Amino acid sequence: MNESGCTTEEGLRRELVRFSRWLSRLGFTPGTSGNLSVRLDSRRLLVTPTGVSKGLVKASDMVIVDLHGRLLAGSRKVTSEISMHLAVYGQRQDVGAVVHSHPPTATAFACSGRALDEILCQEAVMTVGAVPLASYAITGTAEVAASMRPFISEHDAILLENHGAVSYGVTLLEAFMKMETVEHLAHVALVAHQLGSARPLGRDQVQQLQSARTKYVENVQEEGLSPQSGERTGRTYSD
Ligand SMILES: [Zn+2]
Q1: Residue 16, class by beta-carbon neighbours within 10 Å (0-12 exposed, 13-18 middle, 19+ buried)?
Q2: What are the pLDDT digits (tens) for 124-174?
Q3: What pLDDT does 229 receive?
Q4: Can you tell me the distance from the alpha carbon of 126 to that of 47, in angstroms, rounded to the nearest whole number?
Q5: Which DSSP string corresponds to 125-145?
Q6: Do the strands 71-73 and 133-134 form a parallel or antiparallel pair, or are they unpaired?
Q7: Are the beta carbons of 38 and 46 closer than 8 angstroms?
Q8: Is residue 10 exposed (0-12), middle (13-18) or buried (19+ Cβ within 10 Å)?
Q9: CB within 8 Å of 173: residues ≥ 6 apart
Q10: C-alpha 167: how far from its chain's center?
Q11: Secondary-structure percent of the chain, ordered helix, strand, coil, rounded to 5
Q12: What positions carry a catalytic annotation?
């Protein structure tokens, strides 16, 4: 399902193309890196294939896999990073879409052994919260999923040590916006520390923001919107 309620396979193929292009334009998926997936139904996922630029991928390139990552349909190969996606879907029934990319500043934190767990700006509390760092694992192996597992249930975005980031949400739009937010928070943290006087929020300030967020989410749910799409309805993600 996308933000406009799309659930057809054709519509979801278009959504994967749309957010692949957005990731590419933001410089989060250099070369053929990065991959996106979305639930088609209770036993199948629609996924970007391996070896294709996210700026050039087409709706017909997408592959369909089962919840073990086995190819069910499509002429291209399944990404070697599929286990990352399967780990999230297996642990989070509420998740409908997963995005993996290599946003440069967030990846630099991950390459420096640093989580984004210092709450510097209010936006962090209102969106993804603290972003943990999953320990080093060789890409394309089952080690990646194992390194993420301790964090999946409590977080919607995770840094992968010496690798990149993964984010997820009910829709592709939500998963994409979380990835965009992770990179923004990493950039803010980098510059705040370069300025030499970063002032993290205190525990009381974080708790006040968390209760404000809870009220906000309740209001948004009464209006029938997801928190993130409610926040950003003014922005459109066209092709
Ligand atoms: Zn990767």
Answers
A1: buried
A2: 988 899 999 999 999 888 899 999 999 999 999 999 999 999 999 999 999
A3: 42
A4: 29
A5: HHTT-SB-EEPP--TTSHHHH
A6: unpaired
A7: yes
A8: exposed
A9: 2, 3, 19, 228, 229, 237
A10: 2
A11: 45, 15, 40
A12: 81
Please give the distance, rounded to the nearest whole angstrom, from the Cα atom of residue 109 to the centre of ligand 1: 15
96 vs 73: CA distance, rounded Å: 19
pLDDT at residue number 232: 38
What is the mean pLDDT of the segment spanning 109-134?
Answer: 94
Q: Using an 8 Å Cβ cutoff, are 154 and 94 in contact?
A: no
In contact, 57 and 17? CB cutoff 8 Å: yes
Euclidean distance between CA atoms 33 and 139, whole angstroms? 11
Cα 195 to ligand 1 centroid, rounded to whole Å: 30
What are the structural domains, with CATH classification, of the chain?
Answer: 9-231 (3.40.225.10)
Q: What span, in angstroms and rounded, lies between the C-alpha atoms of 196 and 193? A: 5
Number of neighbours of residue 109 by Cβ within 10 angstroms? 24
Beta carbons of 161 and 134 less than 8 angstroms apart = yes
Write the DSSP assignment of 5-66 as a string of letters.
Answer: ---SHHHHHHHHHHHHHHHHHTTSS-TT--EEEEEEETTEEEEPBTT--TTT--GGG-EEEE
**Residue 204 Cα to ligand 1 middle (Å):** 36
Give the Cα separation of 156 and 131 in Å (integer): 8
Res 214: pLDDT = 87
Beta-strand ranges (E) seen in 110-223 are: 133-134, 157-160, 164-169
* Separation of CA 66 and ligand 1 centre (Å): 21
Per the model's pLDDT, the better-predicted residue between 135 and 1 turns out to be 135
